[in-house]
Amino acid sequence: MSQYDVLCIGNAIVDIIARCDEAFLSENGIIKGAMNLIDAERAELLYSRMGPAIEASGGSAGNTAAGVASFGGRVAFFGKVSSDHLGGIYTHDIRAQGVAFDTAPLASEPPTARSMIFVTPDGERSMNTYLGACVELGPEDVEEHKAQGAKVTYFEGYLWDPPRAKEAIRLTAQHAHAAGREVSMTLSDSFCVDRYRDEFLELMRSGTVDIVFANESELKALYQTSSFEAGLEAIRKDCKLAAVTRSEHGSVVVRGDETVAVDAIEIAELVDTTGAGDLYAAGFLHGYTTGRSLADCGRLGSLAAGLVIQQVGPRPRQNLADEARQHGLV
Q: What local confidence, expressed as pLDDT, does residue 161 receive?
C-alpha cells in the first residue's frame, strides 16, 4: 500500500508579489515572463523598488503539493528552508495545507529563498528568484520511506540549477523505481530548458523520468522546433506520458498512440498567471494517482489552473475537492 499519492521535490520559496507596469520591467532589466535567477544584492535592490506586495509561500513543486492536498490527496514534500522568519512562514503554510514536510532546516546562512514576482496588467508574471537555502538541498535530505511510499514523485526542472539537488532527485528516483513507483517532472520554463536541454532529454530517454509536464513554449524549446505538432510527436516517443498546456487553448495529453485534447475552463478575469502550470500538474496528478481517465486528469488540471489565475498568488484559496464536485469531476 502507498503511504502517499504524490511526493513533490522543489525549491522552497516565499513569493513576494507586486503589480507593476511594462516600463518597470524595462527600467530594471527584468526579462518578462521568465524566472530570472538573482543574487542577494539584486534581491535587496528589487525589493526596495517594489510597490505594495503580498507575501505567499510558493515554489513550483510546493504549489503543486498544496494543490494535490487541496484535492484531498496524500502529499509529501522535500525542500530546504533556513531557520529564519521566512523559513517559519514557509513551513507553517505548507503543513497547514496538509502536506508532510519534514526536511531539516538550515541552522543559519544562507537565508530562505524568496522570489520577487512582478505582475504586469496583462496578468503575466516575471519572477526574480534568490535561491538562498534551496541550493543546500542534497541527497542527505532524501527520506527513503517517502520516496518508496509515494505513487508518483514529482520534481521541478528549476532544481537542476542547484547542483546537489540533482543528486537528491536521482537518488529519490532510484528509490521510487525500486518500489515500482513512477517519477514525473515539469520542464519549469523555456529558459530552464535552454540551460539543461540535453540533461532533460537524457532523464526522459533513460527512463529516470516517466511523466513530463510542459507548456507549449517549453515543449518547442526542448526540441528546438517552431512546430507544436513536431514537438508533441517527439515527446510522445521520449517518455511514457506527457501533458502539455496551451493557456486558453487547454492542454494535450499523449501516451503511446493515445492523444487526448482537453479544453481550458472559462474564467471571469485573468488576474495573475503565477502557479497556473503548478496547479495544472496538481489536478492532473490527483486524477492520475486515483485511477482517473487521462481526459479527467486533464480536466482536473484545467480546473485548478483556471481557478488560480483568477487571483493573486500561486495557491488556490478555494477547496479544490469542493470545486471538483461542483464541476462534476468527482
A: 82
Which residues are CB-neighbours of 230 under 8 A, at least 6 positions away? 223
Question: Cα separation of 215 and 154, whole Å?
Answer: 16
Q: Residue 136: which of 91, 104, 92, 88 has the closest Cα?
A: 104
- Rounded to whole angstroms, the Cα distance separating 27 from 48 reads 14
Rounded to whole angstroms, the Cα distance separating 315 from 174 reads 30
Exposed / middle / buried, residue 33 (Cβ in 10 Å: 0-12, 13-18, 19+): middle
Residue showing cell 514534500: 77
Q: In which residue are the cell numbers 523555456 written? A: 190
Rounded Cα gap, residues 286 and 4, in angstroms: 11
Mutual orientation of helices 190-205 and 228-238 as an angle, nearest 10°?
40
- Of the candidates 20, 41, 46, the one whose C-alpha atom is nearest the C-alpha of residue 128 is 46
- The set of cell numbers assigned to 258 is 493515445
pTM: 0.91
Q: Which residues of the chain have pLDDT under 70?
A: 1
| 169-204: pLDDT as tens digits | 999 999 999 999 999 999 998 989 999 999 999 999
